[in-house]
Design brief:
The complex is a heterodimer of chains A (about 350) and B (about 260).
Chain A lengths: L12 H29 L8 H27 L7 H16 L6 H23 L5 H20 L16 E2 L2 E2 L11 H22 L2 H11 L1 H6 L4 H27 L9 H14 L4 H25 L6 H15 L11
Chain B lengths: L3 E12 L2 E12 L3 E5 L6 H8 L7 E6 L2 E2 L5 H7 L1 E3 L12 H8 L8 H6 L2 H21 L14 H14 L4 E5 L7 H16 L3 E5 L3 H7 L2 E6 L2 E6 L1 H6 L1 H8 L1 H5 L4
Helix pairs in contact in B: 3-5, 3-6, 5-6
The chains are: A mainly alpha (about 350), B alpha/beta (about 260).
Chain lengths: ~350, ~260
Amino acid sequence: MKKIHISLRKPQAGELKANRKVIAVCVVLAAMLFICFLDDFTPSGRVIPNYFKYVIVVSLIYSVASLGINFYSGYQGDTSLGHAVFFGTGAYVTAYLTTQFSGINFWASILIGMAFSAVLSLPVAWAGSRVKGSFMVVITYGYCEIFRYLAINSNTLGGTAGMAGIPSPKIFGVRITKIPWLPSNKDGFILILMAIVGFLALFTYRIVNSRVGYALAAVREDEIAAYAMGVNVKAYKRLAIITSAVITSVAGSFYAGFTNVADPSLFGATLSITIFTMLVIGGRRSISGAILGAFIVVICPELLRYVQDLIGLPFDPWYILYGLMLVIIMRFKPEGLLGTKES
Amino acid sequence: MSEVLLSTQNLSKSFGGIMANKDINFHINRGEIVAIIGPNGSGKTTFYNLLTGITRCSGGTITFEGKNITGKKPQEITKLGISRTFQNIRLFGTLSVAQNIEIARHCRTSSTMWDALWHTKKYGTEKEENAEAVERCMEYVGIADKKDWKATNLPYGMQRKLEIARALATDPKLILLDEPAAGMNPKEKEELMDIIRKLSSDGYSVILIEHAMRVVMNIADRISVFNYGEKIADGLPTEIRENPVVIQAYLGKGASADGNA
């Protein structure tokens, strides 16, 4: 009897996963473009409410911040409740420069904001090379409170009211909000932010799988062993926080350019916690997780507010459900929705 | 032919008032296997920490290949060619075996974030070199079939071997092993001794802290004995076995004198 071998090459587990990822990215991209351009092809009126697009833009801005904190709290592994410092710095630098000096270019203000944030991240790096764990949580929290009070008490920065009247950014001389071939004033932001999020995703992916990313992993897992492998632990901790701060700062600048205001709450601990929560819900050290986390945390309250209006609840159900959701996710998926399991 | 690779002159370390290491004069030649033995708390691991720069010495000098390396940073010392393993295993737990070894290539590669982002030529060649080195190191200690295992999921003995593979991946001249046989079964101990012998015959110098006397007596070219932070004896295994000072350190005073303790 002859055995017949049928050799159908089975796809490897890794390959399948990679394929699935590519498909997921394509679907999300297509959906976004659909949302952007649909109204161009509908003959009368708007199908997609502007408010919905607003939520998408804010989600994308927070995705940038969430990808930013991922470098520090994800890959380097220290908890930060101070990333609002960098978000606020980006926002305020953009606000100040575009309104004061007869309007410095928005894009230039992003770069200057990044530089400021990089400098402001150095004290955190300095503290981080001396203490760790829960001490860093308190230190970063205190750090962002300092800046909130500075912003509140500074007249040049507009005090409690913050700075208003920030012009929307221009691209090739055209305001992003008024690009003629786009159906609404939000679509320009959606496209640009999608490009930025896409670039950051690629950036993160490639860095993490390189010599630099491996060194960060070593620092996170065991500092002493990292030293013994020839990793300059302090330098890599510094690198992680600076990268993280610079990316978060970009999110802040866009926030100012989009909402046209910057107020002291952008330096607040609440915002810090929100950014950190996005990352933890989505999954630390997961790129798609960081983005998903941002969308969940931004979209859920809006959705629940809508539900509240619909059934006429006297209170906002969000705050109860938000807390409950966090508890449930941490109970059943402590590594985050798209994170990888440890141990 | 016996060229000195590393030596220490009056190396000392005090923690507060306690002398963890006191005036240690130690040397190792190229290709030699030197074992350091001594009761618990006698300063053996402190000595390693001083050699690798993880703790700073309070006095004395360390000379490696004729150069004074006292006070150098740990990452610089690794780059010069001293590599180590740890008594309480310090692997990068959540990473795979291959990744653990690839991290150790850090000190021999130099690609930056820029190279990684644009996948430059340098990035490509370094990745290839690393993959080869990882393969070679895994085969050297015999864990090639566990390539994709998560480090914490390895059996204890294999974790010790992975630590050696990781130390090897830094291209060292001198390897410091801190109790590599601890927790190993007799078969694994045999394999470990083979690995250490192979290291020595391939030109690596090995310093070995070990409590398992069968391992020490079998493979060490020379033995140094530490007690209360001081080096109390140094010599061939046969000499150390008979040395009254050593016996006294291990068994107490009465035992050494005339055996009627």
